[in-house]
Amino acid sequence: MTDYFALLNQPRRPWLDTEEVKHAFHARALQAHPDAKPQQGAESSSDALFAELNEAYQVLQDPKRRLQHLLTLEGHPPDRASGATPTTIEALFPLVAAATNRATALVKQSAAATNALTRSLLKSELQNASKDVATVQGKVRELYDTSIACLQRLDQSWDNDSRPEPNQLKQLYLELSYVTRWLQELEEKRLQLSTC
What is the pLDDT of residue 61? Predict the structure, then answer.
C-alpha cells in the first residue's frame, strides 16, 4: 500500500493543514505531470505517478479518508462490523431516516402529479419537508463539526506519550463515515425538493 503521507511529504497524523497538503500536491504534481517532461517510453509511469499523487491529495484532503488511510498504515484498519455504532449516530438515525423518507415520498408524489391543483396542494408539504431536511442537516453538520474538533484534539496528543488509542480513532472514523454520507444524502434530498 502506498503511503500517501510520504508521497506528499506530510507527517503521518490524524489532522493536516489542508492548505499545506494543497501546496505539497501542486509542487509534486508540477514535477510529475506527464506534460512537464515528456519522455519517450516514460509516459505510462508518469501518468501512473500523477494519478497516485492525485489520489493521495484527495485522501489527505478528506478527514474521513485520511483517518482511514492512517489507521490502515498504522496496522489498525477500520472495520464497521467490529465497532458498535456510536450513540450520537444512533440518536440521529431516526431523524435522518424520517426526513429522507418523507422527502423521497413527496418528490415521487410531485413527479406523479398530473394537474396544477395537485401540484399546488403539495407545495406546502414540500416546503415543510424542505425545512425538516434543513433542520436535520443542521444537526448532522453540528455532529460533523464536533467530530472534526475531536479529531483536532486527538491530533494534538499524537506526538506525545498520550497518543490516542486506535479504537478512539476507529470510532471517530465510523462517526465521520455516517455523518459525511448523511450530509450528502440530505443535500441531495434538499435539492430534489427545491426543484419540485
Answer: 97
Length of the chain equals 196
Range of the domain at 55: 4-61
Range 22-54 burial, b when 16+ CB lie within 10 A, else e: eebbeebbeebebeeeeeeeeeeebeebbeebe
CATH number for the domain that contains residue 38: 1.10.287.110
Neighbours of 145 (CB within 10 A): 11
My answer on whether 114 and 179 are in the same domain is yes
* pLDDT, tens only, 116-140: 888 888 999 999 999 999 999 999 9
The verdict on 98 and 188 lying in the same domain is yes
The Cα–Cα gap between 15 and 17 comes to 7
The H or E element spanning position 179 is: helix 166-194
State in Å, rounded, how far the first CA of the chain is from the last one. Answer: 46
Grid cell for residue 168: 478512539
User: In the structure grid, which three cell numbers stand for residue 190, read together?
Assistant: 434538499
Helix or strand holding residue 148 (H, E): helix 116-156
Q: How far is CA 92 from CA 54, 114, 135, 138, in A?
A: 34, 35, 12, 11
Place of cell 506530510: 10
